[in-house]
Amino acid sequence: MSEPNDRKVAKVEVPLENGKTRKQMIAELGMGTVGRNALSAQGFATPHCGGGIEYDETLKIVAGMCGKVRSGNLDDLTDMLTAQALTLDSMFTEYSRRAILNVGEYPEAADRYTNLAAKAQSQCRTTVETLARVKRGGKQTVTVVHVNDGGQAIVADTFNQGGPGGREPETPINAMQPKRLAQAPRCLARTRSGTECQSPAVKGRKRCRMHGGTNPGAPKGNRNAWKHGGYSAKTLEAVRYVKAISRLAGVLSRDI
Hints:
Radius of gyration: 31 Å
Shape: elongated
Oligomer: single chain
Number of helices: 7
Order of helices and strands: HHHHHEEEHH
């Protein structure tokens, strides 16, 4: 038994250009970036609007927004990024709430919600940074300020806030700003999902704080692990000393 087909066919009135066939116009409309993304946008937005969105109107709106961006008008783009950042922040709050509710009785569920909250927070921060770059119109740079008389180079991290009106004064980056963390080496430890951890590594170490970066390791001179002392620091130092004496004696014997 075949199921009834209730799907509506999108109809768009497009004038046929000179020298192009109808099939060529349909292929260009279907393969074009604006047409395909307008269809996707209509499909995702229709359930939230009661099913009253038509494809031809969606195509006009998307094409108009793309035209604004090409002409330098970024108002629609900044509105989109702002809305996305607010949505991600709401997701972070909800996942954090669910993680707290499951901490005691369902630790695995709490761990999953905590990971989801961290991902939403990270993506929200990235979206806010992108929005700041769009509004500012500049980019981050690292410049060498000067070299003193002793030959030591003094390097300063600066933030170039140059916009359409010209270059503005450079402002030093605060060490606690996310941009500084984004420049730090990545942890790259293997996570539970099989991917590499992208959290910033602890200063002076190769791992982040969640994968052992703050662990100082075994204490030096641990007597609990002592067996025979054949590989202790003092023994290895003595072996190196004896080998050095042997090499020196060999050189002296050849000279004689």
